[in-house]
Amino acid sequence: MSVPTREWQLVRRPQGMPVAEDFRLVATSRPDPVPGQVVVRSIAMSVDPYMRGRMSATKSYAPSWELGETMQGGTVGQVVASRAEAVPEGALVLHGSGWRDVAVLDASAVTVVAPLPGLPLSLYLGVLGMPGLTAWAGLFRLADFRAGDTVFVSGAAGAVGSVVGQFARLRGAARVIGSAGTPEKVRWLTDDLGFDAAFDYHDGAVADLLAAAAPDGIDVFFDNVGGEHLEAAIEAFRTFGRAALCGAISGYNAEGTQPGARNLWQIVGRQLSLRGFIVGSHSDLRPEFVATASGWLRDGSLVARETVVDGLDNAVAAFQDLLGGGNTGKMIVRLAADPG
Fold first, then answer.
1. Could you give the CA distance from residue 182 to residue 249 in angstroms, rounded to a whole number?
2. What is the pLDDT of residues 118-136, one digit of tens each?
3. Distance in angstroms (rounded) separating the CA atoms of residues 307 and 328
4. Mean pLDDT lowest for which of 43-47, 152-156, 262-266, 328-332?
5. Helices (H) and strands (E) in the chain, counts
6. Phi, psi at residue 8, to the nearest 5°?
7. Domains by residue range for the chain, with CATH
8. Does position 232 have pLDDT exceeding 60, yes or no?
9. I need a surface site. Which of 190, 191, 195, 209 has the fewest CB within 10 A?
10. pLDDT of residue 52
11. Strand (E) or helix (H) holding 307
């Protein structure tokens, strides 16, 4: 016996922006679960910018995906068969073996989660999941946020950035500024999320746009973009400014080495602290993060928005759209309706 499944595989290393021919959707099967394993039917899966790095052969903090193997990613699902007492049939779980509609996994590879009454389970992949913890760790631990700080967030309309800005506002920032890629996203940041100012980075030099939004400078920079945004933030920092460097999506599809910020010398004179980080190194913060963020969600203080694409067949298109800035908030691929 076996468990039928449909899975996306990487079949070619992308050159620049990934194209459809780099991937293959296959119908296959997995062995029936043995003692200690569960079968999980996917409800929603995540596509995230970091996945682009795992498609390349370049050495990084996470191993590259092998050609011909099924890709991986955060998924929330429901156990439909179990041979593990601790994870019964019907349990809702999180796991990291996405890009498939069904997974056969060791019970130790899944995390049981509670239902979210009135809220979609996909929030466990966004504001209550890895992106939310990334925002929490980067802002409060890496950038050492303090009430009264002026905070600038690049890529502020994405899954991480949109939460960073709200966390800063809820913890007493003097001013929160964000950059985004469309006028609609800019309006969402200011009208719905409470950012004090935001700008479309296509409207001019980022340094000029940031200077207009923060004429007195910034204390904290949370960077999802890199490149011109990092250079602009260094220019805008006050003395003792702090940056949490989370990503550099502006260069993920670039071919060849990209130029860095030209004003790094100001780090010395202004006594700046710029710290790169990987969220997996800060999992100890998860309990306090989930407790606080879930409370803010329940009382309406924290706004969660998702861009939802339906169907496993459309997962690659959703990933391409994500890399092109087509999402507002968290990009989710919905594979099934939440259980009633």
1. 16
2. 889 999 999 999 999 999 9
3. 6
4. 262-266
5. 9, 15
6. -90, 130
7. 2-126+305-334 (3.90.180.10), 130-281 (3.40.50.720)
8. yes
9. 191
10. 92
11. strand 306-310
Cα separation, 88 vs 71, whole angstroms: 26
How far is residue 244's CA from residue 140's CA, in Å, rounded to a whole number? 9
Neighbours of 30 (CB within 10 A): 18
Exposure class string for 231-262: b at 16+ Cβ within 10 A, else e: bbbbbbbeeebbbbbbbbbbebeeeeeeeebe
Exposure of 288 by Cβ count < 10 A (0-12 exposed, 13-18 middle, 19+ buried)?
exposed
Q: Please classify residue 197 by burial: count the beta carbons closer than 10 Å to its beta carbon, then call 0-12 exposed, 13-18 middle and 19+ buried.
A: middle
> Comparing C-alpha atoms, which of 121, 26, 66, 116 is closest to residue 316?
26
Residue 174 CA to residue 243 CA, distance in Å, equals 17
Taking the C-alpha atoms of residue 183 and residue 179, their distance in angstroms, rounded to an integer, is 10
Q: What is the pTM of this model?
A: 0.86
